[in-house]
Amino acid sequence: MTLIYKDECFELGLPEPKKGEHQTHYVTRVMMEGIRLDTRQARYIGIGNLHSLVSELNRKRVPFSLAHLKVPCPKTKQVPPNPVDVIWMTDTERSEFLEMKKGSK
Question: Using CA atoms, how far apart are residues 68 and 73, in angstroms rounded to an integer?
């Protein structure tokens, strides 16, 4: 568990991290709220390796979508030429995740 920066989350319009919340849980919660998250945003809020969390989510069989896109840097507002991971959940994936959670209880 590492610190997710609350002020930066607020600045980007992301939900406030809960005290002691693991990065994987935070990222899943963000996607469940219908928000897309990219590598540049993740780094800005203190998540250094979004691609590692993507691997962990895949291992846990969490349904989500992944694309590699050019996105603006939250700090500079410029769009660097390198594409980065962008993750989100569709309505169907959110429903699948809720069913998974129900089944595991």
Answer: 15
Collapsed DSSP state (helix, strand, coil) of residue 13:
coil
Distance CA 22, CA 30 (A): 12
CB atoms within 10 A of CB 73: 15
Domains in the chain and their CATH numbers?
A: 6-104 (1.10.10)
Contacts of 54 (CB under 8 A, 6+ apart): 66, 85, 87
60, burial (CB in 10 Å: exposed 0-12, middle 13-18, buried 19+): exposed
The confidence score (pLDDT) of residue 43 equals 97
pLDDT of residue 3: 86
Q: pLDDT for 23-75, tens place per residue?
A: 999 999 999 999 999 999 999 999 999 999 999 999 999 999 999 999 999 99
CA–CA–CA angle 18, 23, 28 (5° rounding): 85
Q: Could you tell me if 6 and 17 are in contact, meaning their C-beta atoms sit under 8 angstroms apart? A: yes
